[in-house]
Specification:
The complex is a heterodimer.
Chain A: E1 3-7, H1 11-23, E2 27-31, H2 34-44, E3 48-52, H3 60-69, E4 78-83, H4 89-96, E5 100-104, H5 111-120
Helix pairs in contact in A: 2-3
Chain B: H1 2-9, H2 13-68, E1 72-75, E2 93-95, E3 101-105, H3 107-122, E4 125-129, H4 142-152, E5 158-164, E6 167-177, H5 183-186, E7 196-205, H6 206-354, H7 362-392, E8 400-404, H8 405-422, E9 426-430, E10 436-440, H9 441-458, E11 463-471, E12 474-481, H10 488-491, H11 515-525, E13 530-535, E14 539-547
Parallel strand pairs in B: 9-11
Antiparallel strand pairs in B: 1-3, 2-3, 4-7, 5-6, 6-7, 8-10, 11-12, 12-14, 13-14
Helix pairs in contact in B: 2-3, 2-6, 6-7, 7-11, 8-9, 9-11
The chains are: A alpha/beta, B alpha+beta.
Chain lengths: ~120, ~550
């Protein structure tokens, strides 16, 4: 079973992502902030990371940069969860080392397929 | 008048010069005349001497002739009587064979007779004389005595003008020197050759010579007089001319002096006028300076105020910028904060509808779908409001890059496929294989999505047609539908904020009322335009243009 680390500070959203992903057959490791997320990467070695950009304390971009510094963890794809309204989030995410992005709010009908797309590649 | 008087009363230098010149001229001409007269007289005397000498020499020659013949015999006449002083001569008187009486005539006797003739015919007196005469009549007069005495002291000629019997004569006397031929008769007297034994005095009357001299004298006199007069005339004329000139010069000088005086008066007047003007100007300048200073003061104060205001404005600007930044941050946070619950709402509604959380009834499905649609509407509203606020604040940041518009249209078309199929509409595309432009992909897509949304909303049957082509150096994209169309009066309203057109007999459709407003603004930002054509009941066609290469905002 593939492991997906979800870094998300909102409880409801965390529930939503976990629900969809678990239903899709993935093991979900939750983290509620950047620091915890970085720790979980080392600890759990996930196959994919879903990273919310706006997080309290250490934000998603910073967390991504930290993860990318580690030789062992560098290859784990990180999907940024970006807000449409914030122009440049997408670019900033790619610059920090993200593999791809999914805009929030998600489309529940296509979300799982999009995640799987990044796992395959 | 005064001028001429002045000249008269005070003899000018010129006049003194003229008088001097006249005097000098007179002296020169007089001297010349005197000299000439003297010269003429001298020549006259000289002529008289020459004549006297000539006469003397003739006498000497006659005597010599006689001497050579040792005396001659001449017939005895009343005038020529036998010479008593020659009585010692043995053949003093002789008879010719025919009985004619001849008497001996020595040089002295002959000379005497010649002299008598000369005096008689020419007025020239000759006198043979000696200090020791044989004949008493031959005794010298006092002048001759002096001359003879002078010969003895070595002089050879004595001459002077003397008066005799009331007449002037040139008297010239030369000695008679004893020659060899003389000794024949005079040897008895103890004469020796070379002895001076008397002399011949010749007296030439000066009358005729003087008469001759009178002509050159007269000529000289007249000539000099004429010359003198001409000279004086010249001097007088020149003086007069110079006088006139001097007078003219004087008048001119005086006129000049007068003019100068007048000019000086005028200059003084003008100077005083100018001084007054100058004073006025100075006052004016002073006033100006005061005004300038006041102006400068006012200007400085104004500048100070401007500086203060600028500072205030800058501070206000900084505050505004801060406010603006806070506003942007607020919008960003709001966007995020609103999305977060929306994400849950949409996502969870979605998974319930998917049946992940168990079976749901039809009613539940219907109602949850309404929740989902409302949530999506709310999301659209949030997105549009954020867009509008950005556009109005001029904060839209464009990402210009190369893109294939045909591909973009295909993508949008694909995303609408399900919805189009659900309404039973046909969707057709007419685009070139590739349509590469430089523009902002997301914003271009936003316009097409907006237009597609509108077409879908207002079309219940028929088709939707998307076309894209190059036209007049730019790209033209159109979305045409066979929907309900728009009234002409409503077309103007289309691109305004929150201008949703109410269509009679139709339930209120979803929409933010910002879509076309945003589309128009974005089209302009991308350097293009958007327009709508419609026929009520038949359909609408929205067309927008984009430049091939984005160059800037088209206003």
């Amino acid at each position: 079973m593939k492991k997906i680390l979800v870094v998300e500070d909102n409880e409801n959203n965390m529930y939503l992502f976990s629900r969809i992903l678990r239903k899709g057959g993935f093991e979900v490791i939750p983290a509620t902030n950047g620091e915890e997320g970085v720790g979980m990467v080392t600890k759990e070695k996930p196959d994919l990371i879903l990273m919310d950009i706006q997080l309290p304390d250490m934000d998603g971009l910073e967390a991504t940069k930290k993860i990318k510094k580690s030789e062992a963890e560098r290859k784990i794809p990180i999907i940024a969860l970006t807000s449409y309204a914030m122009l440049g989030d997408k670019e900033k995410a790619f610059a920090a080392g993200c593999t791809g992005y999914i805009e929030k709010p998600i489309n529940p009908d296509t979300f799982l397929a999009e995640v799987k797309k990044y796992l395959v590649s | 008048m005064n001028d001429s008087e002045k000249i008269k009363t005070r003899p000018s230098l010129l006049e003194r010069y003229a008088w001097t010149m006249g005097a000098v001229w007179t002296a020169v001409v007089g001297a010349s005349l005197i000299w000439n007269v003297f010269e003429v007289k001298h020549q006259t005397l000289e002529a008289a001497r020459i004549q006297a000498r000539f006469v003397y020499k003739k006498d000497v020659i006659f005597r010599r002739w006689n001497t050579q013949h040792a005396g001659v015999y001449v017939p005895v006449t009343d005038k020529t009587q036998p010479n008593p002083y020659l009585s010692h001569i043995p053949e003093r008187d002789i008879r010719t064979p025919s009985g004619k009486l001849l008497t001996f005539m020595n040089p002295a006797y002959m000379t005497r007779q010649v002299h008598e003739l000369a005096e008689k015919e020419q007025g020239i007196r000759g006198h043979i004389t000696s200090l020791n005469p044989i004949r008493p009549e031959n005794s010298p007069d006092p002048w001759e005595t002096r001359a003879l005495q002078a010969f003895e002291s070595g002089q050879t000629e004595i001459s002077s003008v003397e008066e005799m019997e009331g007449k002037e004569y040139m008297r010239l006397m030369r000695p008679l020197i004893t020659e060899k031929s003389c000794l024949g008769c005079h040897a008895a007297q103890g004469y020796q050759e070379g002895d001076i034994r008397g002399g011949i005095s010749i007296s030439i009357p000066m009358d005729s010579l003087k008469a001759i001299a009178r002509i050159p004298m007269l000529t000289f006199g007249l000539g000099h007089a004429l010359l003198w007069l001409i000279g004086l005339g010249g001097i007088a004329l020149a003086t007069e001319r110079l006088k006139q000139r001097e007078s003219a010069r004087r008048q001119a000088a005086e006129a000049l002096e007068k003019a100068k005086d007048e000019l000086e008066i005028r200059v003084e007047e003008r100077t005083s006028e100018l001084e007054i003007t100058n004073e006025q100007l100075r006052e004016e300048i002073t006033q100006r300076k005061q005004v300038e200073e006041e102006l400068k003061k006012a200007h400085d104060e104004l500048e100070l105020k401007v500086a203060e205001r600028t500072k205030e404005l800058m501070q206000a600007n900084l505050r505004l910028k801060e406010l603006d930044r806070l506003k942007s941050m607020f919008i960003a946070s709001m966007s995020h904060e609103l999305r977060t619950p929306l994400n849950s709402i949409i996502g969870l509604t979605g998974i319930i509808l998917q049946g992940i959380s168990g079976e749901i009834t039809e009613v539940q499905r219907k109602e949850l779908t309404m929740v989902k649609n409302s949530a999506n509407h709310l999301l659209a509203l949030i997105n549009d409001v954020i867009d509008v606020s950005k556009i109005e604040a001029g904060k839209v940041e464009l990402v210009i890059e190369e893109l294939d518009l045909s591909e973009l249209i295909q993508e949008v078309s694909d995303s609408f496929k399900i919805a189009v199929d659900e309404k039973g509409l046909k969707l057709s595309l007419e685009t070139p294989e590739r349509l590469i432009i430089k523009s902002d992909e997301r914003r271009a897509k936003q316009i097409i999505i907006n237009l597609m949304n509108n077409a879908l909303k207002f079309t219940d049957k028929g088709k939707i047609e998307i076309k894209a082509a190059k036209k007049d150096g730019c790209i033209e994209v159109s979305v045409a539908d066979t929907g309900i169309g728009i009234n002409q009066e409503n077309i103007k309203m289309l691109f305004k904020q929150f201008s949703r057109i109410h269509v009679a007999g139709r339930t209120k459709v979803e929409g933010t009322g910002l879509g076309l407003y945003i589309s128009k603004k974005i089209a302009a930002l991308l350097g293009g335009e958007i327009e709508a054509k419609s026929e009520f009941g038949k359909g609408s066609k929205f067309t927008f243009t984009l430049p091939l290469k984005h160059k800037g905002v088209k206003t």
